[in-house]
Amino acid sequence: MATDTKTTGDAAPAAKGTTLLEARGVTMRFGGLTAVNNVDLTVSSGEIVGLIGPNGAGKTTFFNCLTGLYIPTEGQVTYKGTVLPPKPFKVTAAGIARTFQNIRLFSNMTVLENVLVGRHTRTKEGLWSAILRGPGFHRAEAVSREKAMELLDFVGLADKAEHLSRNLPYGEQRKLEIARALASEPGLLLLDEPTAGMNPQETRATEELVFAIRDRGIAVLVIEHDMRFIFNLCDRVSVLVQGQKLVEGTSQVVQSDERVIAAYLGTPFEGEPGEAEAAEVEAAEAGAKEEGK
Ligand SMILES: Nc1ncnc2c1ncn2[C@@H]1O[C@H](COP(=O)(O)OP(=O)(O)OP(=O)(O)O)[C@@H](O)[C@H]1O
């Protein structure tokens, strides 16, 4: 495995309160479907920001636009003032790491090896060095292992370092995904439904883990359906409905906003995104019925 102690990207922690991520007018269309529609979002250092919205609101698509998996149809994403390259590994090297809604671990590798893989954007040793295994390689590997073990200790998995990742319980696999993402030494961590499938105790522990990550100087942007988790955790919450940003504010502001409650309960409200389209469809259907009479 390619390992080294050198940091090859600009992942130094930013001063508290400086803008890290800036998404402007991000739109993503799939054929005729606009999954994300003109969304702006900023994340600053020291912040935990939540992204919520009903199923199909466009949250994961927006994440994919931020991490180079999708190239937005329109709009721009910058990290520390530089436009992000449209390649996931380059985005990681720039300082943004992520986890996935559906866990993506190397199931036949050990827990430790999974974290070591996560370090590859922060190493300068290449394939040949790994194959030839000279003294430099061994030194670098020892340092990488030490860093990986520190991360496993941080997420509470140090005693399982040599276990195969597929044998971990579900909640621990999620923790391992976070440790692997942290191994790339990000300035911003994106978490896509980190508590999905967890029991209340595991969810509470994940909340503490996210606070601890923030305290290490890493900003966090998190998608989650568990509202208690989001409102306990986040400094700011942004709500997407049908691809558009409906409202953004502190947990207190968002949870008492009647438009947010209506969006979750499925109650129509004035000015709802997609309202004009829905009215058009209704009118067309009514017209068709009239003609058929
Ligand atoms: N690759 C794709 N091709 C076509 N349509 C897509 C694609 N990815 C997502 N969509 C559509 O875009 C819309 C938004 O999906 P997305 O998964 O981003 O929503 P979400 O808010 O993350 O939902 P959930 O909370 O259920 O995960 C949905 O209508 C979905 O079917």
Automatic annotation (TrEMBL):
GO cellular component, one term: plasma membrane
ATP-binding is among the record's keywords: yes
GO BP terms, alphabetized: D-alanine transmembrane transport; L-alanine transport; L-isoleucine import across plasma membrane; L-valine import across plasma membrane
ABC transporter domain boundaries: 21-267
Stretches for region Disordered: 270-293
Keywords, ordered alphabetically: ATP-binding, Nucleotide-binding, Transport
GO molecular function: ATP binding; ATP hydrolysis activity; L-isoleucine transmembrane transporter activity; L-phenylalanine transmembrane transporter activity; L-valine transmembrane transporter activity
Compositional bias per record (Acidic residues), positions renumbered to this chain: 272-283
Stated name of the protein: ABC transporter ATP-binding protein
Organism of derivation: Wenjunlia tyrosinilytica
Taxonomic classification: Bacteria, Bacillati, Actinomycetota, Actinomycetes, Kitasatosporales
